[in-house]
Amino acid sequence: MTEDEEIYYLTEESPFFDLVLQKSHVNPPWQLNLPANWLPMLPNEVVPVVLKHGGKSWTVHYIPIRPRFDSKWKNFVVDNELKIGDACVFEFIDRSPKNPTFKVHILRDEWPPELKALVDTRGETSKSPIIVD
C-alpha cells in the first residue's frame, strides 16, 4: 500500500487548514495565500517550507508579507496534477521555525452533488465562501 492509499486521520496535535483550489492557485500567478489566523504559528521572516505528499517533498518559501507561499508552489501543483475544484488539507506536522513542514492531503474533485453545487456557485471569491454545515 502506498502512502497515497493509506488512510490518515487528522489529530488535535497537528493544526491544519484546508482550501478548495481556485483558478489563481493552479494557473498563473500560482498564488497560495495562507489564512491570516496562521500568522502566529509561522515565523515572521521568509523561510523554506516543506510540503509532503505521496512519499515526495517539495520546498517552497513562506513569505510573511500577505502570508503566502512563493511561486515554487507551481511545482507542487504541476507534479500533483492539481486542478480547480480539488481540495488540499495542509497538516502542520513540524513547527520548526527555520523549516516548517506540512503534510498535504489532496482530495480530488469528487464532491458529493450537494457540495459540488456549492463549489460551482460559491467560493469563487472571499465574498462568496463555501459554508458546510
TrEMBL record:
SMART domains: B3 (SM01019). Keywords: DNA-binding, Nucleus, Transcription, Transcription regulation. GO terms for molecular function: DNA binding. Residues 17-110 form the TF-B3 domain. SUPFAM superfamilies: DNA-binding pseudobarrel domain (SSF101936). It holds the Pfam family B3. It comes from the Eukaryota. It is found in: Nucleus. One of its GO terms (cellular component) is nucleus. Its main location: nucleus. This is TF-B3 domain-containing protein. It comes from Castilleja foliolosa.
